[in-house]
Each structure stands twice: as C-alpha cells, then as structure tokens.
TrEMBL record, chain A:
A GO molecular function held by the record: phosphate transmembrane transporter activity
Spans traversing the lipid bilayer: 36-63, 87-112, 133-153, 165-185, 213-234, 283-305
Organism taxonomic ancestry: Bacteria, Bacillati, Bacillota, Bacilli, Bacillales
Superkingdom assignment: Bacteria
Protein name (Swiss-Prot/TrEMBL): Phosphate transport system permease protein
Automatic annotation (TrEMBL), chain B:
Gene Ontology terms: biological process: phosphate ion transmembrane transport
Annotated protein name in UniProt: Phosphate transport system permease protein PstA
UniProtKB keywords: Cell membrane, Membrane, Transmembrane, Transmembrane helix, Transport
Membrane topology: Multi-pass membrane protein
InterPro entries, A to Z: MetI-like (IPR000515), MetI-like_sf (IPR035906), Phosphate_PstA (IPR005672)
PROSITE patterns hit by this protein: ABC_TM1
UniProt source species: Anoxybacillus thermarum
Main localization of the protein described in the UniProt heading: membrane
Domain ABC transmembrane type-1, chain residue ranges per copy: 76-281
Entry-linked CDD domains: TM_PBP2
A GO CC term attached to the entry: plasma membrane
Source domain of life: Bacteria
GO molecular function: phosphate transmembrane transporter activity
TM ranges: 23-47, 80-101, 121-141, 147-170, 191-212, 263-285
Amino acid sequence: MAMTNGNRSYSVREMIKENKKKQNGQQFIEWLMPKLLLLTATISVLTTIGILFTLLFETFIFFERVSIVEFLTSKEWLPWNEETGSFGVAPLVTGTLLTTAIAMLVAIPIGLASAIYLSEYASEKTRKILKPILEVLAGIPTIVYGFFALTFVTPLLQKIIPDLGIFNALSPGIVMGVMIIPMVASLSEDAMSSVPNSIREGALGLGSTKLEVALKVVLPAAASGIAASFMLAISRAVGETMIVAVAGGSSPVFTFDVTKSIQTLTAYIVQVTTGDAGYGTTVYYSIYAVGMTLFVFTLTMNLLAQYISRRFREEY
Amino acid sequence: MEKLIDKQRVVRYMSSRLLRNNVLKLLFFLATLFGLIVLVVLLYRIFTQAIGWLNIDFLNNFPSRRPENAGIKAGLVGSLWLMIIVAPVSLIIGVGTAIYLEEYAKKNRFTDFIQTNISNLAGVPSIVFGLLGLTIFVRELNLGRSILAAGLTMSLLVLPVIVVAAQEAIRAVPNQLREASYGMGATKWQTIYRIVLPAAIPGILTGSILALSRAIGETAPLVVLGIPTFLAYLPRGILDTFTVMPMQIYNWTSRPQADFQHVAAAGIVVLLVVLIFMNSIAIFIRNKFQKRY
C-alpha cells in the first residue's frame, strides 16, 4: 500500500521508519536535557567550592609568610611595610564590629517597629503603599549610600559632635542601618504575618489591646523568624563594603571610639585592590586572609539564622 | 454588700492600657515613616546637587581631571556591555538550575545540598565574589580586567537570586497543566519547554530583571577585580577593559575637590534613572503578563 502526498509517495514502512527516527531524536533530547540541567545546577556548587578553595589556598600562602598567631593576637595592622610590618587582624575586626553594632542599633529597633506597624496595625491598603516604598531603600546601590554618608550625614553629625572626623565609624554605621531597615522589617513582618489570626482573635477576645496582642502574643510566636532576620541583618552589615570604604576611612586602629576614622575588613580589601599592591606581595595575599575572616563571620551568621528559624519554629 | 469590682480602678487601668496602645502605635508608625523620610532626603539631596551638572555633555563626555568636563559616557556604555554578558549567562544557568531542582531533581540529600548551597551563596558578601573573580577569571584563566571576567563574576553573584525567583515562578505553575500535557502524550521535556516555561516566564523575567538591576548598581566586586575608572575610550569587544557607572561614581566621590561631589551626584542620578527604568519594566511585566491560576 502506498500513500501519495503531493509528488512524493510514502509506504507505511517508510513512515514508521521516519517516525522512529523522530522518536529517536526526541528520546535523545529527553535523555540529554536532565543531564545538561544538572550541569547548570552544579555550577552553584562549583562556585562555593571555588570560593572556599581560592580563599583557603591563598590564605595558606599568606600564613607561610605571617604566623597565624600574629594574625589572630596582634593588635596592630601595619601591612604596608614589608620589613617592620605587622599583621594583627584585630583592628579590622573591631572596625567592622563597631560599624555593624551602630547599624544594628538603627536597623533593629526601627525595622522591628515598622514590622509591628505593618503587620499588626496598618490596614491592607496602607501596607500595600508603604511596603514597596520601604523596599526601594533596599534597592538603592550601596555606593549611593556611601556618597550620602560622606557628603550629607557626616557634615550633619559634625554640627552635633564638633570633633567628629571626616571619616568615622558613626556616619557609615547609621547609613548602613537605614539601608538594612527594609530587610529587618520585611523578614520580621513575614514571620509575624505567618502567626495565625485565630491566636490574635483569642487574645483580643480576652480583652487585650492591640499592643498587648502584638508584644505578648505575636512577637513571642514569631520570635524565631525575627531572630533569624537579625542574624541575616548582622551578616549583611559585616559584609557591606562601599559605604564603609567611602565614609569610614582607612585607619586600622584598635579603638572603640566611633568619632575616629576606622577601617573595616571589607574596606581594607578595597584599599589594597584600588592601590598598586603588586601580585605576589604579602599585602596581596593578606586580602585573602581578611576575606577568609569575613567569609567565616558571615557564613556563621547565615548558618545561625537558618538553625534558629528551623530549630525554634512554632508550627501551627 | 460591697462591690466586687472597683469601677474607678478598672477605668483608670483600662485607659492607661489604651493610652499605651495609642502612644506605641504612633511610635511604630513614625518608625515606618523614618525610612521613607530618609529616602526622600537622600533623593532630594542628590537631585539638588546634580542640577546644573546633569546635561547632554555629561552623558557624552569621558572622565576628565577637570570636573566641568567630566562625563559618564564610558561608564554608561560599560554598564550596558556588562549586561551583555551577565544577562544571558546568569539567566541560562539560573533558569537551568531552577528547572532541574523543580522538575527533575529527586528529593534526596544531593538536592537538599544544592538548595542549601544556593541559599548560603546568597548570603556571601559581594566582595568575596570579587576575590573569587580576581583569582579564577582575572588571573588563572588570564582574562584580565575584561568585560568577560567582570561579567562572569557578576553572573555568579546574582545567580542565587535568579535561581530562587525562577523556582518560585515554576512552582506557581499548577500541576493540572503538566498533567494535561502528559495526557496528550507529550514527553517530560516537551511539557517543560512548551507548557511550564511559557507559563513561568513572566515571573522569571520579573525576578531576573531585579537581579540584573542589582548587578548594575554593584561596585565592590568590580573594585576588587581592579576595573579602571579613568578610561577615555569605549570597549570594542568582550575582552577589552572597561569601566561602569558605580566605579565612576566611587572615583568621583573619593576625590577631594568639592566640584566632583556634584559630578558624582549627577552620575548617581543617571544610575538611578537606569535602575528605575529597569524596575518599571519588571513591574510592567508582572502586572501585564502574570497570570494567577
């Protein structure tokens, strides 16, 4: 039997053959795609491995030249002199902790208060207007915040604190806090919104005011999510770079004075890489050791956040 | 019989509780406003500083030692070049990862590991990605301070954001669609390619554009890579050196002359306009094409 199709004629056998060929192609794609997609999925794993290995490898070279004891215990960070240099990471760590602490003093109370307002008091309509505007704050590039801290906040603060340096820990800390407010607010609000309404209504029915519901019922129930949001905020502040690089200064001094110029871990990496520290010098390898310190700090915070939100979650 | 309830005391107690409620409500509201006020002050400051400096010459000039001649052309074009690498690379890898995790991956330890790994990558500071890029792309692969090296670094940086956005979009496609497709005799890949992806694309695009706008504003990793700020020519290929807007702004901000503050402000305005433009496209796509099932 033969079928005519235009000028060409097909036998059934040929049609079956052709169909098989098509199916073979199809089967090949079905076989190939999962493997290709798995390949793309492993790239994220490779990235992590890449980060770990570059940091470990180059940090190792650094510790061949500088003793790890000196790195961890010395209170002087004077990397620029090859002869008499001193590599104690403490000043960079205190600089980082100082700006982070200031940022948290701004971001945690204001962020949490915003979260309570948005989740417990605001009407659906108000929330729909306020939340996206608040999130614009999180979308502004950090270099813009750095510019704002240096040219607006610092001069403003100098009117209140006359002996505040041009570069200091206070101004970038505050601006960083403002940048992190939306993060704390939005994550805490998510945690509070997931507390079921029946619990709120129970408390309201017993005669609580909205404030009492928010502070004594919703906050404790959402505590794990809120604590996790604080951890993530700290991690974000520790890793923030451009604000502190622009407005924090470049003086690695072991100090807790917020009016003085400081240097954070991130700002040091920026200072070295914008300058001309030659490839292969001890200063060059020091940025990896500093980067490693930074990575360990932020990873610990992130893992802690995940642990808290998993371990202490209240299930409803 | 004596009254069991002292009415006066109750009234006093109640009103103090209500007062506290109202006072704190006001405080919470003011805290919410605080962020908005800072936003307004920031934008007002920058726009007033930029006025008079932002003109066609500023868009058309290369960087200069004299503030009145400085322009953002090299940065603006460089940022676009960067997107030519970042957009396809991060989209292909990100969406591929998301499809794998949502459609193919079995629920096992390896899948869990990839998922945890992605959320941890999202929390790694951007400057650490810079160190990765400097070591692997700039030095080991010998790409130099090129658009390609910077683009690959940035792609890895925004990858977690795109993966998560794409996963959410794919998860939102209802299972009935998939089952209907299987019922018609379609294979798994045909179903993904012709049914799931088209339904998920608005969500994927919205998330990806937001991720790309983050890449445009990011400075720290590029500083670490050593991207120059003073370039008086435009790149011609992806292996050329280049500069981007945030790097230019950083350079102008750190110059001592007061006039460069205005140049920096003008640069920030251009950067913000680009970001607002990208975000409006994302919002437009979300409102126009996003279906709710």
